User: What shape does this take?
Amino acid sequence: CISLCRRLTDKLNHFFSDKQRFVDEINSVTAEKLIYNHAVEMVQSAALDEMFQQTEDIAYRYNKASMLLEGLSKILQDPADIENVTK
Assistant: This one.
């Protein structure tokens, strides 16, 4: 019975350790990361459309992505993050 309890305790500890790592990863997702990823996706999508001559709202998407990245560069604190946004 004691060995069974120890095995269960070990399994629970492992489970909670994995759960905490997962929660930490979720908490590291910030609004800034989401905005940055959205802006990058907008530029990539616009570039593909431009390659295939679908030029409907390309300038609008490039401009919007540029404004998002410019806004991020004004609110970010970490120099490495700022450098990534201004590339």
Summary: Residues 2-86 form one domain. Residues 2-27 form the longest helix (26 residues). The mean pLDDT is 79.
